[in-house]
């Protein structure tokens, strides 16, 4: 089965990004496909490469980057939600006159259309949040 | 699988205080371009999103409630409001904005978009969907 996943709460404050990560791993292990994960609301904050949690804690962003690389998962961050919260890729940082970008490897910024498209193209859409 | 899926956007939060309601509406507006079968559900504090007379100047955020009245132009014409959620908050349908659409299959007659339904009916509506996004 093709499963689309939405993460709609921020890392560490809320467990949604962890639960979604564990769900995706379990789904893949069970033979399902997870072509895309969409990050919305504060979920876009998962995509910052500037996160430096204590070494004895899980690194949520690195976990996602590694999982996406291993299984070719498209990690999409909503551009409107990302711009409000200061998540920028190189192009967007230059366009907005900011001195740096901060998006992590494996994530890309795109529009809400990617969320709708995921809903259309997958057999199930599973949302993690409040 | 048919080309058109039934999308339901479930709105459960008050319009202000958190960003869920506004960012839900942004998804609805973008999603309208995809020609899917779209419905919106309002329950719990989400029923406050449709109340008339919203005034947000003092809290410094945009009053986005007029946008709901434009949804008909985007072919979003089914706004289901849960009766029990209204009653639990001391609201009636009269406290909600008048939201209408022009029915192209009925000589563009103006019809109400808001449909107040019972909690039991809402469960049926949810059960009929292909994709549910919850905000």
UniProtKB/TrEMBL annotation, chain A:
The keyword ATP-binding does not apply. This is tRNA 2-thiouridine synthesizing protein D. It comes from the Bacteria. One of its GO terms (biological process) is tRNA wobble position uridine thiolation. Keywords: Cytoplasm, Transferase. It is found in: Cytoplasm. Belongs to the DsrE/TusD family. One of its GO terms (molecular function) is sulfurtransferase activity. The lineage of its organism: Bacteria, Pseudomonadati, Pseudomonadota, Alphaproteobacteria, Rhodobacterales. GO terms for cellular component: sulfurtransferase complex. The keyword Lyase does not apply.
From TrEMBL, chain B:
It comes from the Bacteria. It comes from Jhaorihella thermophila. Belongs to the DsrF/TusC family. SUPFAM superfamilies: DsrEFH-like. This is tRNA 2-thiouridine synthesizing protein C. InterPro entries: DsrEFH-like, Sulphur_relay_DsrE/F-like, Sulphur_relay_TusC/DsrF. It holds the Pfam family DsrE.
